[in-house]
Amino acid sequence: MSAEAKAKELGISLESQEAGYLNLCIRSGNLLITSGHTSDLKGVLGKDLTVEQGYEAAKDCAEKILRSVYNAHGTLDNLRVLKLLGCVYSAPDFTDQHLVINGASDLLHTLYGKDGDGFHARSALGFAALPTGAAVEVEAIFEIQS
């Protein structure tokens, strides 16, 4: 099953979206580079929110990224996930950012394969704050394969 078919089966929205202040996904050569996509969930990991809630927030970010990629590129197929940057609104002593961002990575592994095109490089970092108080923000880089 293709990545796009899997996404639709999982109920991920690929509907058209209006252009915003910034480009949500831009193509450069054979790369698709996304802006940071924030979670709907707001709050501080390790204070207001649990790792499990953060995991779901990161998954929400990945779903939004897939929608932007689809809207910019017209398909989710024939892509390789190269890199994720995950930003977590964290309490000072919170050290499980990597477990939170697994929510985004695991979704991309489901669509593209953990041992295949979904096996990506990643950074998971803690921040003192994120825009609008979002719990998580994720950006991604995909390679378009011929």
Walk me through what this model shows:
The chain is an alpha+beta fold and 146 residues long. The chain has a single domain (3-9, 35-139), classed as 60s Ribosomal Protein L30, Chain: A (2-Layer Sandwich). The chain has helices spanning 3-9, 51-73, 97-117; strands spanning 25-28, 31-34, 37-38, 79-89, 121-127, 136-144. Strands 1, 2, 3, 4, 5 and 6 form a 6-stranded mixed sheet that branches. Helix 2 (51-73) packs across helix 3. The longest helix has 23 residues, at 51-73. It is globular. The relative contact order is 0.26. The model has no long low-confidence stretch (mean pLDDT 96).
Helix content: 25-40%
Number of helical segments? Answer: 3
What Rg do the Cα atoms give?
15 Å
Described by strand count, sense and barrel closure, the largest sheet is: 6 strands, mixed
Give me the strand/helix succession: HEEEHEHEE
CATH topology: 60s Ribosomal Protein L30, Chain: A
Q: What number is the mean pLDDT? A: 96
Strand content: 25-35%
Structural class: alpha+beta
* Total separate domains: 1
Determine and state the CATH class: Alpha Beta
Poorly predicted segments: none
CATH evolutionary superfamily: RutC-like
Question: Could you list some keywords that capture this structure?
Answer:
146 residues; alpha+beta; 60s Ribosomal Protein L30, Chain: A; six-stranded mixed sheet; 35% helix; 25% strand
Please render the helix and strand layout as text.
Layout: H1 3-9, E1 25-28, E2 31-34, E3 37-38, H2 51-73, E4 79-89, H3 97-117, E5 121-127, E6 136-144
Parallel strand pairs: 4-5
Antiparallel strand pairs: 1-2, 2-6, 3-6, 4-6
Helix pairs in contact: 2-3
